[in-house]
Amino acid sequence: MSTAQAADTAILDTNKVISLPDGRGKMTYIDDGDMFEVCDTRADGHGVEGQLVRKGGTTLITVSDGGDAGCDKKGYNVPNSGEYQMQLWWQGGGAAQYSQWFNE
Predict the structure, then answer these.
(1) Is 28 inside a domain boundary?
(2) d(Cα 66, Cα 58) in Å, to the nearest integer?
(3) Number of domains making up the chain
(4) Does any domain span residue 1?
(5) Is 2 within 8 Å of 75 (Cβ atoms)?
(6) Over the stretch 18-48, which tens digit does the pLDDT of each residue have?
(7) Residue 14 confidence (pLDDT)
(8) What range does the domain containing 21 cover?
């Protein structure tokens, strides 16, 4: 792996969080148990949706939350090989938020 590739990949060994602007929502990777949690944190009539994507474009899981109490979760065993990214967006429009590329 080149130095540039190494800089693009962050080895993840703890929880990771990405958040939407204006407190609209967040997506959390919970390392202990390989759980992905998406939370709609604003009662604005729109939900939030998060995805785990493998480098190359394959969507592995999708988790949506909105219109109910609490957050929604889905498990996925992130392997040590490959590179993965969390992507999160507000279903009312606007730009998505992206995590750094990671693996376990």
Answers:
(1) yes
(2) 24
(3) 1
(4) no
(5) no
(6) 999 999 999 999 998 999 999 999 989 999 9
(7) 79
(8) 15-92
